[in-house]
Amino acid sequence: MKLTDVVKALDLKVFCGEDQLEKEAKGGYVSDLLSDVMGSGKESQIWITIQNHKNVVAIASLKDMAAIILPKGIKPDEAMLSHAFDEEIPVFGTREEVFSVAGKLFLLLGDE
Q1: Is residue 46 over pLDDT 80?
Q2: pTM of the full structure
Q3: Bridge-based pairing state of the strands 91-93 and 13-16
Q4: E-strand spans in the chain?
């Protein structure tokens, strides 16, 4: 599924990466532990995390993830946005809790 469809279905705010919304998303990953994502995250997944700093983007880029979702109304800091722009990693936001957005993402994308 294209990121543009995920953004619409989940009513996500696009903080950056508007020009990357044609990327394909294949599943999701939920973790706030960077080493966990580095070890187990997969290409084209959407990562849901409460972490909002530039190291998150570095891991997402390393794993070639499709995008990052920040839940609970969390906003990215300026360094994160700048790094996300440079690495072409879309960053989205939602006011929903992690459990809720993860469940909705699973229903959209399944367990790929």
Answers
A1: yes
A2: 0.96
A3: antiparallel
A4: 13-16, 28-30, 46-48, 67-70, 91-93
